[in-house]
Prior knowledge:
Structural class: alpha/beta
Strand order of the largest sheet: 2-1-3-10-4-11
Radius of gyration: 19 Å
Amino acid sequence: MYHRFCKAPLPLLAVLVLLLSGCGQRSEPLLRIASNVWPGYEMVYLARELKYFDTNQIRLVEFPSATAGIQALAAGSVEGAMLTLDEVLGARAEGLSLQVVAVLDVSVGADVLLARPSITSLQELRGKRIGVEHSAVGAIMLDAVLSGAGLTMDDVEVVHTTVNRHPGVYREGKVDAVITFEPVRTRLIKEGAVQLFDSSEIVGRIVDVLAVLPKAAERSPSAISTLVAAHFSARDHWLQNPDQASPILARRLLLQPEEVAGAYTGIQLTDLATNRTFLQGPAPKLEEAAERLSDTMVRAGLLDARPDLSGLVDGSHLPD
């Protein structure tokens, strides 16, 4: 899987280089978390810069793709990852019993359909080439776009392409429109692309989470709780001090500081109260969302069957 990532497999040597780079002779930390660049994941990196946690205990490991991060999970090189919910479900289907310990964000407009300026409505996508990731989120967005346009899959040409190639295929004229997300959205709009649809019209269906392996929850629960608390503290810092936080966030997002706020326009960084509804109580909201998403993935051919969802949610690491 699957969303917000380069899907091409990362060679094992490259994985090892990424993990070991800069490590020297230090002992391994209690908790290593994989991620790729996405605005909703950046609060933990902001927390690292603000020294909200001990980097000798918790290490953030950046990969070029979620696929590479999931490979590292399978290899035991990291204990957790920041992923979309569909990526978690795909990993569980492959035998990785990931547990969601925090809901980081909900897309409320960050996932978009961009088209060439000559295309002014969704209906004009008929007969056009649409670039999209072969993912659950891609399937959700494409289905919503076609429904809004009154079109079917037979009316368009779907070009499956990973997000790292979205700018290239658009600039090279290989697609007429592309379903993508930040920070690619900001870059292509600056180059003249027009936004015709976004995930604000399907709120609650695209969710990003922090997930860990059961062994991490057993071995280092305090480190997980510390990282979750740091995420929420950094979120509060960003919302209260955007001028101070924007330059830090801009470096990793490859944006100008004044562009950072725009990258979060379509993202709801979920607060603690929302996380409690997602992860705690007799009927955690995330379990219901996972069931619906699993069914969508099966219909789209992304899963053979709904994975075992037992133990998916663990709200015990949320701050009091």
